[in-house]
Every structure is written in structure tokens, then in C-alpha cells.
Amino acid sequence: MTIGTTDQTAPHGVARNSRYWVLFVMTMVYALNIADRFVLSTLIEPIKAEFALSDSAVGFLTGVALALFYTTAGLPLGALADRVNRRNMIAWALAIWSMFTAFCGMAGNFWQLLLARIGVGVGEAGGTPPSHSILADYFRPSERGVAMSIYAIGVSIGSAMGGIGGGLLAEHYGWRVGLIAFAAASLPVLILLWTVREPRRGASDAHADAQEAQPSFRESLAFIRSQKSLVHVLAGATIATFSGGGLVWWTPAFLGRSHGMSVGEAGLDVGLMNGVGGGIAMVLAVFVMLRLARMEAKWHCQFVAWLTLLISIPGVAAHMVSDRATAILLLWLFIPFINVMIGPSLALIQNLTRPGMRGFTVAVLLFTANIANLALAPQLIGFASDLLAPRIEDPAQSLRYALAFAGLTGLWAAYHFWAAIRTLPQDLARAGSA
């Protein structure tokens, strides 16, 4: 079944009515991807208590275990997304990661939970590249900033679900029920996926060649390396993921240790910041992108660079103040905005890449960003916290200092977005999106 009809004003016959439905469905898939990932970070403290884990072990469980297999499977699955029916691939990926999320809730010990977490990573690796590639074929280059900003609202929806829902379910029914409930939430979205039509690759690119030969793995990688602005956008998005999303993995635990909040209270606050605050920030970003869509592409980079730079200030300060109310206020100036850069960054990446290699290029971003977000951030912050604990007067405060230092990497991310501007026009032309 396909929703909508073909409109002759749409690029290359893409059904204009249906593309917004497709955007909605892909956003819901992305929300579940984030929710199933985020809920475990909300449940860190009860899981740590039940299995008697250190912060380093928690960092490995919540980040490294997911990232190692997410990133290992991501590149070949990204290349696969450029060759197979993308809608079907997304459906299989959603079913697999949801099943393993349920297995996480059934784990009887650390090692069972670790294996199930690995399964979640493999499943999630197969969902995002084909989703981005489909959306790029439903929207023109000038429209992708808006479309990807709407798609990125899935982060706020998923984070709110994982934070608020996971925290409340854990307080009333235990952490296991929370994980199983989130796994079951995928069933309605799986049904919706079958209403999505697989578009022709390059359908919304004015100069795309339907007969263009499928590039090899090596050719795709060589093209990415040759696009200097693309390399800078990939680097900026990767580091921004570390300095923003990487810190939020530990925020519920930070609020509990440094400010005496319960799992439910911390989950609710962070969930509201991600869900309500992040949702509002994402909607505002859509309006900004509507304005920027009529301007030169360099303004996309300028917008993301300034945003990344400015939110780093409250991001660092929130972990240094001792007053709970002030810390919460500063987190409200930080967390809701950390994902705003996703939409403009994804649009730039799609526009700087040729149609036949978009799935692979997204997989490259997922590889680097998830190493930063899921492996390096949880693990390095956990190590830093454990290292500081015996060396300070109040060991419970070690996490706050580790988080404050990690937040400074936002300055580095901003530099790369500015650096991308230098070669942006010629690189867009080479990709066919000028």
C-alpha cells in the first residue's frame, strides 16, 4: 500500500503527498532507535546496583558493547543499503533490535545483558543508513535541511520516551519491565513501515543518472576523502556527538550522585529536557532551516558552528555548580539543543555525496559518531570518574569533574563546521547538489 499520489511538480515523479508520510514513518523508526538506546542509560543506577558494577563496567555495557558491534556491522550494512530494498531492510533492523532489547530485560547476569546489548547494536546499525537514503530520494537538495531537521525530532521523542517512560516504569515495576515494554513498542511502527514505497535512487536529484554504475566500497571511500568539506562536517558532527550526547549518557547518574535525585526524578528531568525542551528546540530549528533553505549552503555550517560553540558554555558550567536548581537550569540551556545540529549536518552530508553512495556515507558517520558517543564518551568518562574518585575529598563528586572536562570538546567541533565552508561550493558541485 502506498500513501499519496504522484504530483507532476515533484522532482522526477516523486509523490509529493506521500513523502511527508514517509518522513513521519522514518521519524518514528528513529525515535524507537533512540528510545531503545537511551532507556538503558536511564536505568544505569538500578542495573549497577543489581549486578554490583563499577563505573567503568557500566561505561562498557552502555557504550562500548553497543558501539563495537554497531560500528563493525555499520559499514557493510551501509553499503548493503545502497544495493537492496531499503524499506525491507529497515523493517528487519527494527525487529532485530527490538527483540534484543527485550532480551536485555530478561538478562540474569552481566554477561547475558552484555550479549543482548551487542544484539541491539547490530540491529540498530541496519536501520539508519537506509532511512537517510530513502529520505534523500523523496526530498530535493534544497529541502533536505528541513526534512532532516524534522527527522531529527525523533531524537527528542525517543529520548523523552527512554527517560520519562524508562524511569517511571523502573520505579513502579523494575528496570526489566521497562526494557521489555520498549521492545513491544516497535510493533505498531513495523506495521506502518509497510505503507512506505521504495523510491528510485537519485529520484530527487536533478542531474542524477538512473543508470549510474554502483560505486565500489573503495570508490565510495575515495570520494568521501576527496570532499574536504564533507570530511570536516563528518568530523564536526562526530565531536559534537561526543560533547553533547556523550555527556547525557551519564546525566541521570550525575544528578543522583551530586544532587541526591532518585532514578525516577533524574529520568523525568532529563526526559523533559530531551523531550519537551529538545522537541521545542527541534521545531525552532525547522523554521530556521526553512529560512536557510533560501540562502547559501555556507549558512548551514555557520548555524551549526555557532550553536555548538554557544551551548558548550552551559554544558560545562552545569557540572561545576553545587546548587541543584542552578545545575538544572544550565542543563536546560544545554541538553535541549545538543541534537539540533543533527538535521543540518545530515542534510549537508547527503548533499555532499552522490546518490549511489549515500547509505555508505551515512554508515561512515554512524561509525565515527557512535565510536565517540557510545564507546569513547561512556568509557572515557567512566575511567576518568574512577581515576578521580580516590584523589578528591568527596569521591561521589568525581563524575561531575569528568563531565565538565568532556564538555569542552564542543569548541573543537565548532571549528570543523567553520572549516567546512572553505571548499563547500566546489564540493557540492562535484556531488551534483549545487
What would your notes on this structure say?
The protein has 434 residues and is mainly alpha-helical. The chain has one domain (13-201, 216-431): Up-down Bundle (Growth Hormone, Chain: A). It contains 22 helices and no strands. The longest helix has 31 residues, at 358-388. It is globular. Mean pLDDT is 83; it is low at 1-14.
* Strand segment tally: 0
Outline: globular
| Superfamily (CATH H level) name | MFS general substrate transporter like domains
* Strand percent estimate: under 5%
Characterize the main sheet: none
Helical amount among residues, as a percent range? over 70%
Number of helical segments with 4 or more residues: 22
> Quaternary arrangement of the chains shown?
single chain
CATH architectural arrangement: Up-down Bundle
Specify the structural class.
mainly alpha
CATH class: Mainly Alpha
First-to-last CA distance: 34 Å
Low-pLDDT regions: 1-14
In short:
By secondary structure, the protein is mainly α. The protein is built from 22 helices and no strands.
